[in-house]
Structures are given as C-alpha cells and as structure tokens.
Amino acid sequence: MTISVSSPAEAEFASLDRATRRRLLVGVLGRTLGSLTVLVLAYFLLPYDRVDGGGAVLVLGLGLLAVVALLVWQVRQIVGSAYPVVRAVEAVATSVPVYLLLFSIVYYFMSRSSPDSFNETLSRMDALYFGVTVFSTVGFGDIAARNDVTRAVVTVQMVLNLLLIAGGLRFVLAAVKRGQERRATPTPPA
User: In the chain, where are the structural domains located?
Assistant: First the structure.
C-alpha cells in the first residue's frame, strides 16, 4: 500500500502561506507535547501505590480497552482531517506513549504487590524503562520477569507490540489513504 503525500490535501497544505503552515504544525506539536506532558506527570505523580496483583490485571484489561478506543478515535480523526498525514503523525505520537505507560503502570503494580515478580523491586522509572525495553525488543536483561504471571504479562506485551506495530500502522496508513481520497473526491452540491 503506497501513500501519496502529494494528495490534494497535502498540495493544499504546501500552498498555504508559511505562517499558516507554521501555526498548524505548532498546534500539532503543542497538542502532542501537552498530551505527553500530562500523561508522564500523571504517571509519576498520581498516588497509585496500593493496587494488588488482581488490580494490575484489571488495570491492564481496562487500559487495553482504552487504548483500542483511542486508536479507533484516532483513525476516525485521520480520515476526517484536512491533513491526514499530519494528523496520523500526531495520532501515533500520542497513542504509543499511552500504550507504553499502561504497561509501565501494570509492571509497577505487579512489582509492588508481589516483590518476586521481577528480579528487583521496580520504581516507576524502572517500570517505564522495562516497558520501553520490551517494546523496543532491546531486552538488556538487567530487569527480568521472575514468575509465571509476570512472564505472561510480558508475553502479552510482546505479542501486542507486534500487533500494534504491524496492524496499528496498517490501520493508520489506510486511514491516511482514505482521508486523502475523501479530500480528493468533491462532494456534490445538495
């Protein structure tokens, strides 16, 4: 599937005056950085230290439903956007951190509720670091899952990583293409 970035919408974007293009891009960057700032601050500052192992599984399930809902909403926004490629970049830059923070929270909960879950008790930074290393497939080995439940959750993340990267990217690209086609097709007068 190839995506032409020279669609009418992108040609229209390129034809905008420099100040308008800058305003649009600053808006995207501002919304993305604002979202990331709020998410990271919430991750590090909210008092969620008293969740047991069952709570971690509940958080994971509800969180995954929220991530799917976010992705569906993002795809709809891309299709309806005047600039689908720009909107797709914003969608990915927002959705991936939400996904990573979800697993980081779960790993933190698991470490707190069952100290034998990992080879060391995880701080919030440790949990974020571990979630990102699993996502990136780096796997340094300095933090390791030590029991079956924790290994199962890490395995779920690895499988979902593959699905998110392959399937999620495919949906985003299809949404961009559909948004470009929508913009290129004139609507008949009513």
Answer: 8-184
